[in-house]
């Protein structure tokens, strides 16, 4: 799979933003297997870009393509198909079900399109230090714990691209590194690409391409 950006610019941005960015208003093709780091200071449009790439919002000029297909002409079913098999995401605002336990949140996702057996949930949760939270409602978990749940959830499905919007904002370095290692392993297992948007450079992400938004 490829993701192509052709002259993409949020419709609420001034035209001049094209000239200040290595992404907005540019022609870019991201390939499966690449690790793309987007350095995006607050307000530069990190969440806008991630939402456009996932097809959740469409207020932009220019075109975004999955393979050769233009997202402007996608139906709800087209997006559902890509999100099921090809694109996974960790939202900045996580979007867990607050009244469901951690395990329920993860198992619900796993069952939609199983890539891993149920035991993998326990294994991943233990690896990221939230094994003792599996029976806790997600709203009771700290934000850093919820962030790890959202990371694990993103890894329970097949994908060609993993989109990350500031996934470590509430994690210390040690926990961030553990989560990164797990994501890299899972990406490798699928020969998938990662698009990682964050406020600054993160040393432990082995990017192959780096862009300033
Ligand atoms: N639908 C919209 N209409 C108008 N302006 C918007 C819209 N969505 C976002 N913006 C503005 O665009 C800018 C970028 O927003 P966005 O949330 O994409 O930034 P961000 O880089 O993710 O910021 P942060 O790191 O602070 O979360 C902000 O100034 C925001 O107010």
UniProtKB/TrEMBL annotation:
<dbReference type="InterPro" id="IPR003439">
    <property type="entry name" value="ABC_transporter-like_ATP-bd"/>
</dbReference>
<dbReference type="Pfam" id="PF00005">
    <property type="entry name" value="ABC_tran"/>
</dbReference>
<dbReference type="InterPro" id="IPR015854">
    <property type="entry name" value="ABC_transpr_LolD-like"/>
</dbReference>
<dbReference type="GO" id="GO:0016887">
    <property type="term" value="F:ATP hydrolysis activity"/>
</dbReference>
<dbReference type="GO" id="GO:0022857">
    <property type="term" value="F:transmembrane transporter activity"/>
</dbReference>
<protein>
    <submittedName>
        <fullName>ATP-binding cassette domain-containing protein</fullName>
    </submittedName>
</protein>
<feature type="domain" description="ABC transporter">
    <location>
        <begin position="3"/>
        <end position="211"/>
    </location>
</feature>
<keyword id="KW-0547">Nucleotide-binding</keyword>
<keyword id="KW-0067">ATP-binding</keyword>
<dbReference type="GO" id="GO:0005524">
    <property type="term" value="F:ATP binding"/>
</dbReference>
<comment type="similarity">
    <text>Belongs to the ABC transporter superfamily.</text>
</comment>
<dbReference type="GO" id="GO:0005886">
    <property type="term" value="C:plasma membrane"/>
</dbReference>
<dbReference type="InterPro" id="IPR017871">
    <property type="entry name" value="ABC_transporter-like_CS"/>
</dbReference>
<dbReference type="InterPro" id="IPR027417">
    <property type="entry name" value="P-loop_NTPase"/>
</dbReference>
